[in-house]
Amino acid sequence: MKVMKYLFPILFIVLLAGGCNFSKDNSVQFDLVVLDTLRIPFAGDIHAGTYAYNTGLIYNYQSGEYLKFDSSGNVLAKNTIPAQGKDGLFYVNGLKITNSGTILAKSIREEIGLLDENLTLIKKTRMPFPNGSLDLKRNQNAIEIYKNQLLLFHPGRDNKSPYELGYYKNNYLLEKLDPNTGQASPFLKLSPESQYQENLHFEPPTALINRAGNVLYFAFNKEPLISAYDLEKNGELVNSIPLDSEGFVQIKGQKLPLGNDGSVVVEGEITNLIALKNGFAVVYINGLTEEAAQSNSIPGQQLKIYSNETGWSKPIELPLNILFLLNFAVDGQSFYALTNPASLPAGNNQAIVLKMQLKPN
Predict the structure, then answer these.
(1) Which of 4, 79, 107, 312 could form a disulfide with 119 if both were Cys (CB 3.0 to 4.6 A apart)?
(2) How many Cβ atoms from other residues are within 10 Å of residue 80's Cβ?
(3) Domains (ranges, CATH) in the chain?
């Protein structure tokens, strides 16, 4: 496939291009560049996806189809796994490709599937208790591997509900699962800087986790705060970094759980969290209040990078037709983003994946 290099002003009618700055003097700017467009035969919506070790993977819940492709968009394998039964996996909203080529598929129930390189389900490990947070959000990166154990967001231990007041304050955030024995143990405590330390009701969150080396990054999707934990020190909190975004819209905590009073049209949300060698990146939407909606459209996703040495970058506006990033990389490396199937013409039977790069301006 011929590699196409062009900036988003050419590719899209609507450009939401931004700059990214890693230096202390705010002098370095970056453009978001499309290197190639991959067209992959795949029908329907896409509920989860990932890219690692030169391999991409996408999944559709309705059909149960999994498809694996290479860096040029060539199909490597595809398979259909039913949602029910002994050989099935219910709604999967988290996928992870391991360094051996096998794939972890996290169901919103208590199942974690292991798929081989041909996308055949070869094993299912069940958590010892049900998932108390049945959130149907797509592509939640809430599973990690560390020293042959799985770290995952799976609240509900001891029949406690994560919707109860003070749940995350009084309980652990994650579970550590041994996939060989099926035994799980609670892991990781809430940052003292988190809003969930307050004795107030908040909109129920879900969690995002990602690891680089011995550092695990954790964030709730509805809180503009990212926490780093040292896995070598049994999950000791390193620090918590507030997301540098003044426009992040939240439904405030309440003494009585009354919910949205109508003042929030779209909640702010962190939609992706990516660990990097010297920091992390987040994809998020700021949200929209009823007051601001009179003069503003629904906000798109933004990408922001945090360096342990220089702090936050400037935000990069992602095109409105991006559904989610399959992965992310800095230092001139390419990464992949999935185009929202809903933005494509009716009857389309292709998944459109963009190969992208951050380039100094």
Answers:
(1) 79
(2) 11
(3) 6-360 (2.120.10.30)
